[in-house]
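2 proteins. here.
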Amino acid sequence: MLLTYQECLERYGSDYQIKKELHSGNLYMKDKGIYSTLRNISEIEVIMLKYPRSVCTGRSAFYYHSLTDVIPDHYYLATKRTDTRFNDPRIVQSFIKDDVFEAGIIEMKHNDSNIRIYDIERMLIELMRFKTKLPMDYYKEIIQNYRKLAFELDFGVVEDYAGMFKNGSKLMDMIQMEVL
């Protein structure tokens, strides 16, 4: 179980008691201000607790949605443009306009961790938007997996997401040619 410093104060009563629990091995410090009652805990779980307003996107989301088997070197997180910059070398942060940020956010369970992530339809739009920034073999692998999922995708939702962007019709044309 992950706990913030404030939750530890409420649970153990004082900073001294927290330090006693750490020393006795009943509590483990996982990151600054993040503690765990378990020795081994997923790093994504720590990151999601540390940055609760962020959403997994990009290479991380493609991996968690099983569209690729390439494990990303960093955690790719999206935040609103008005949010502060993360000073964490494990994270690649992207800033998204407030009016399109919320579209497609879901809670997903991955290896007993809850992750805030964009749904698979929103990630199809993101794939088309950033096609030129991805290696071609990586892009082809993801597109092939989207083709396998073509009948499970809700293209009404995909069209709604595409309509949020100024080049939405071009994105839909690309999806028609690549996925369908």
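next one coming up
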Amino acid sequence: MVDQKESLGIQSIASIHVFVRDLDRSRDHYVEHLDFSEVAVSSPDFEAENRARASVVEAGSVRFVFMEPLGSRGESFHWLERHPEGVGRVVFDVEDVKRAFRLVTERGATAITSIERRAVDGGVASWFDIATALGDTQFRFVQHTGKTPIMPDLVRLDSPRGGQNRFGITHVDHVTTNFLTLQPALAWMDRVMGFEPFWEIEFHTQDVKRGHFGGSGLKSVVMIDPHSGLKFANNEPAQPCFKASQIYLFYQDHRGAGVQHVALGVRDLVSAVEELKSRGASFMPTPDAYYDMLPERLVDLGVNELDEDIDILRDLDILVDGQADHRYLLQIFMKDAATLFKDPQAGPLFIELIQRKGDEGFGHGNFRALFESIERQQQLEGRA
């Protein structure tokens, strides 16, 4: 009898592996603009085994591992044959890797590797990989002693290079993936991962019920790991105008389902965005009408007051959503890598920054505002 209630023992997202064609470009962006520190690089043994060079950047508990192919063999090369740059693997810390392996395989997961064990960073790490329903993105489960391990044969720098996390990035808040159809992924997350439905929304940018046939829409369902609280948001295009949806355009750009954005928690979003903008960081714009309507919308939500000045939020393009009893959240979305680097092969992946002030949800108004902002950007580029 397969036990779908027993937890996999996920503790956190340990790292996110991003396969890139230009490692220096990605590393420099995170170090110079987002104030991450480069903490490790690939060794000759790593490069020979993985046919790739790597750089690891960290801020708070957030870690990105950038991998650039060396030659025409290896995992990252074959991934990039099919996709632009993007997330190839999400790595989870787990309490007991043997239990996690037993549970996911009993529930029908396709294991890519058996459990491997290596000495890493002065401790011991055990891990395995599985295929997922999130396109070509894999999941890795790691149990370790000592420091949180990076990967075998990645060498920690004696002195980290670059930033100092002055923007107060703390952790990965959630990961968002786009699909043509949600049901297979939701069923997989439920049955294999033991995730549960947390939140959902469905809308169209125009009121199609009143005879409008422009714009586009989506359906989104957020799944949560009840043990760790980790959330995965999942989107599909909605009828009518299915192929006009920016979710569909992501699918075309990425050449399949995949991770659209990674949301990073920060301690003080206003000060972080002020400094980021002073450094030339680019964010999704928000129309003035959003802020004109914000006071009335906050009253409807039951958020009687904000700690922040709405005019400052307007100047910074920060979005607000919430619920009763002074619980709300602040969000902002950076432009995607293809736009930032002016290179379609950099891919549609982007970063969200979020500060939660008592609200652990997602916010219907902000979700729609993000969707419409991406759609406006695509229209400016002549793609929508």
